[in-house]
Write a structure and sequence with these properties.
Layout: H1 11-25, H2 32-39, H3 43-50, H4 59-75, H5 82-87, H6 90-123, E1 128-129, H7 162-175, E2 180-185, H8 192-199, H9 201-204, E3 211-213, H10 220-227, E4 235-239, H11 243-246, H12 251-263, E5 271-277, H13 279-286, H14 295-301, E6 305-307, H15 315-323, H16 328-336, H17 342-346, H18 349-358, H19 361-375, E7 382-383, H20 384-390, H21 397-402, H22 407-415, E8 426-428, E9 455-458, H23 460-469, H24 477-486, H25 492-501, H26 505-517, H27 523-534, H28 540-548, H29 554-566, H30 570-578, H31 581-584, H32 590-602, H33 606-619, H34 625-637, H35 641-650, H36 657-669, H37 673-686, H38 692-704, H39 708-721, H40 727-739, H41 743-751, H42 754-757, H43 763-775, H44 779-792, H45 798-808, H46 821-836
Parallel strand pairs: 2-5, 2-6, 3-4, 4-5
Antiparallel strand pairs: 1-3, 7-9, 8-9
């Protein structure tokens, strides 16, 4: 593309010019749908962008749109047209986008601070004014069992439990102005979503214009990504069944990263994220793996968990008995629920389980197919065509012969019937077709049937029941054949992995083959690796992968090249390279581009290495300094000195101090002394101070570069302006200031009263801050922090509690006499609270 335009337009002007260029200058105008397919978003999103009805959440898809239109312009012979070069220049778009993003955030905050917040926020998307959110079922709160008594409210009377008190504290902090996250975890139908609904009441009573945003259409991940950039202060983000947002790859990690950015942006505070998760999904998202699959989600969720117990017990059970006199539904649940499973009973679990167990064989087969689809990787909306074709495989010959010609209609009537006021075993999913297609048996279209025909959702409790009761069951062949034909394309790779894990290699191959055809960036390498392991001499899987793999994801292409080379599939490597992956690779992830460069180099594709180097140095996205460091190393190893210099000129975002430290290390490795010096000066004066713990990494990097003066500037800025949320990071900063003799800055930091502002979680970090404050002689702040801990800290971690109590006593061998009288009493209060809990 051409260089930057002489006069850089505003974002609104630029998007209008792009729409006009697409509509009037291109001979064959690409439709919104065609552009959406190339960019990877919905046609509605493309239309909204070009009409300026929506500001893009991320810059990379927007730049991809610009590249697609540029390619159309080249084919139309407009590449040399100055007007085309001006409207399609990536660097102009990047600067205009970033300026507009800052303008929007600053404008919203300024309006709120000027007292105009209500009018501004009422007009902004996303979200609905909280006062208008009066239907709990629109937010997926479970309906309760019915009652013959007329005039009852739609939900039974609510009995608060311990988790409600913890959730109320989080909501109160958000109401006071601090962005917060709460993640309620527990089994199905234990009351997680109802607890979130009840927790909204304090926000309804606030003067600020709180809104609630529940992103669901066209899909939950797409909806979340499309509008996260527009989330304004005083927004409550409702992520019921948060796994539907955070598990899908790669959108889940993008959503988690954007939420983390939102939560730490003071200009957009306060926002409140309420999420619910089953326990197994919590484990999946928060457990470290190699390679890391959910690193961003883990960082988002860690430390914000509120456990919802399965059963009512103790004081909650007593309160339930008292409340039962006012609501017959509570009375029935209190009498009939076993083992304290009151919430499950209210949600109709006994009815669902009874109907499931009593279902006729053909109907139960349909239910088992739905259970297996969910537990083996399908999303919540299951195509009826899949279930209908799979169900016969679950029946014996006699059962199938007795099922009758209308078995599917009868089964659907059974599973969709409401019982005691709650939805049935399977619930039809509403789509754009207003007609009820429930009783029309679908055909069997060739290839994947994603998006064709009716969709159904399995009741949550039976979903969970199926994961446990059928964990050891291997579905019949009909299930896998129907999955290959009808499962949603986003689920094909996961289902193929499930088939492989169960020794169903032919079915796994078919599913991975379809996933490859439909653009799954990982399925091709999985297909090649698995079947080379089984049949080293069979070239067909590798041939298919090389010929059909999507070339847009550089990490996936690099992995496939590695797999093919490891299998000795030289012919297939040649086929893949002939498709020119260097020209198609998306440049938004510099680390992935670096990996692809190394694999192309190993494959001897020198021309493609050179082409990709030129593209990366000129157009790669540099929003992540850590990824910039990867690419710098790769270019340096390839001997691309000129491109290294060009890249350094464009690199170095100052928003992430931890990643910035890694970039400094990479620049040292590239021997870019001049750029290192310039970056050190910029980092000390302008680097972000959030998160504060990452500033510590940057300080270490600056010290390693011998930049002591810049270290002093940075920690002085941190003392005066850094966020005081993280107790461990504040303790580090306080100790750092004392060790460097910055007494004036110690005074500045203490004057900001960190003891009154830091989070009380985790306790071991509070203990570190107690010691740091005591070392600075700030006894009054020690007392303040101890009082807060005694009143509000979570005492679930006994090891951390022991550390805190030791710090309160003055530490082993410490000066216990320095603990003021109030602190000593707080030590006793902490012990008393801990014993009560």
């Amino acid at each position: 593309m051409a260089g930057p335009a002489a006069q850089e337009p505003e974002y609104a002007e630029l998007i209008a010019e792009l729409a006009v260029f697409r509509d009037e200058r291109l001979r064959r105008q690409p439709s919104d749908r065609a552009l959406a397919g190339d960019v990877g978003v919905s046609p509605t999103t493309i239309g909204d962008w070009l009409r300026a009805d929506r500001f893009p959440q991320q810059i990379d898809p927007l730049l991809k749109l610009v590249r697609v239109v540029w390619a159309q312009a080249e084919r139309a012979g407009l590449a040399g047209d100055p007007a085309a070069a001006a409207v399609l220049d990536e660097q102009t778009w990047r600067r205009a986008y970033q300026a507009e993003a800052r303008r929007r955030a600053d404008g919203t905050r300024a309006a709120v601070e000027a007292g105009q917040g209500r009018a501004v926020l009422e007009r902004m998307r996303p979200g609905t004014p909280l006062a208008a959110m009066v239907d709990p079922f629109s937010l997926e709160v479970h309906r309760a069992i019915g009652s013959p008594v007329a005039g009852l409210p739609v939900l039974p009377a609510y009995v608060p439990r311990e988790h409600d008190h913890r959730l109320a504290e989080v909501v109160a902090q958000a109401a006071a102005g601090a962005s917060q996250v709460a993640v309620l975890t527990g089994g199905s139908s234990t009351g997680k979503t109802r607890a979130c609904w009840e927790a909204l009441q304090p926000l309804r009573e606030r003067d600020e214009p709180w809104r609630l945003w529940h992103p669901i259409a066209p899909t939950r991940p797409d909806a979340a990504l499309a509008e996260l950039a527009d989330v304004a202060p005083y927004t409550m983000i409702w992520l019921n069944e948060a796994q539907d947002y955070l598990l899908p790859a790669p959108l889940g990690e993008q959503i988690a990263a954007r939420l983390r950015d939102l939560l730490r942006d003071p200009r957009r505070a306060p926002v409140l994220v309420l999420a619910t998760l089953w326990l197994d999904h919590w484990d999946t998202l928060t457990t470290r793996t190699t390679p890391e699959r959910h690193a961003q989600a883990r960082e988002l969720l860690d430390g914000h968990r509120i456990r919802v117990p399965d059963a009512f017990a103790g004081a909650a059970l007593d309160a339930l008995t008292d409340a039962a006199g006012t609501d017959p539904r509570l009375a029935e649940a209190a009498e009939r629920a076993t083992d304290g499973h009151v919430a499950q009973y209210l949600a109709g679990v006994p009815v669902l389980v009874s109907r499931y167990e009593d279902a006729p064989p053909a109907t139960k087969a349909l239910i088992h197919a739905a259970m297996d689809a969910r537990r083996l990787g399908a999303g919540p909306h299951i195509p009826l065509a899949w279930l209908a074709e799979a169900a016969p495989g679950y029946l014996t010959e006699a059962e199938w012969n007795q099922s009758g010609d209308n078995w599917l209609e009868a089964a659907l009537d059974y599973v969709t019937t409401f019982c005691k006021g709650i939805p049935g075993i399977l619930t039809p999913v509403k789509t754009g077709n207003p007609r009820n297609q429930r009783n029309r048996r679908p055909g069997a279209p060739a290839g994947t049937g994603a998006g064709q025909g009716p969709l159904y959702r399995l009741a949550d409790y039976l979903d969970q029941h199926g994961r446990n009761a059928r964990a050891a069951e291997i579905p019949p062949i009909d299930f896998w054949t129907a999955a290959a034909a009808h499962a949603h394309r986003a689920d094909l790779t996961t289902l193929g992995d499930a088939a492989w894990a169960r020794g169903l290699y032919r079915d796994a191959a078919q599913l991975h083959k379809h996933a490859t055809t439909h653009g799954d960036s990982l399925a091709a390498s999985v297909l090649s690796y698995h079947f080379h392991t089984l049949h080293p001499t069979d070239p067909r899987p590798a041939q298919w992968a090389a010929a059909h793999a999507s070339l847009g994801d550089p990490a996936a292409v690099a992995r496939l090249l590695s797999e093919l080379r490891g299998a000795g599939a030289d012919e297939q490597v040649t086929v893949l390279l002939a498709r020119d992956p260097a020209a198609h690779a998306f440049l938004g992830d510099p680390a992935a581009v670096a990996w692809l460069l190394s694999q192309l180099g190993w494959a001897g594709a020198d021309e493609q290495v050179a082409a990709l180097i030129e593209r990366a140095a000129a157009h790669a996205s540099f929003d992540d300094p850590a990824a910039e460091a990867w690419l710098l190393d790769a270019l340096r190893m390839a001997g691309a000195d000129e491109q290294v210099a060009a890249l350094i000129e464009r690199a170095a975002s100052l928003d992430d101090p931890d990643a910035l430290a890694r970039l400094l290390d990479a620049l040292w490795g590239a021997e870019a002394d001049e750029q290192v010096t310039a970056l050190i000066e910029r980092a000390a004066a302008h680097a972000s101070l959030d998160p504060l713990y990452a500033v510590a990494q940057l300080v270490n990097a600056l010290r390693g570069a011998g930049a002591d003066e810049q270290v002093a500037v940075l920690i002085e800025r941190a003392a005066a302006h850094a966020s005081l949320d993280d107790p461990a990071a504040v303790a580090w900063l306080l100790n750092e200031l004392r060790e460097t003799g910055a007494d004036e800055q110690v005074t500045v930091l203490l004057a900001r009263a960190p003891a009154a502002h830091v989070s009380l979680d985790p306790l071991y970090a509070v203990a570190q801050l107690v010691n740091a404050l005591r070392g600075a002689g700030a006894d009054e702040q020690v007392a303040v922090l101890i009082e807060r801990a005694a009143a509000h800290a979570s005492l679930d971690d006994p090891d951390a509690l022991a550390l805190l109590l030791d710090a309160l006593r003055g530490g082993r061998g410490g000066r216990a006499g320095h603990c003021p009288g109030r602190a000593a009493s707080c030590c006793r209060a902490l012990r008393s609270v801990h014993q009560d809990r």
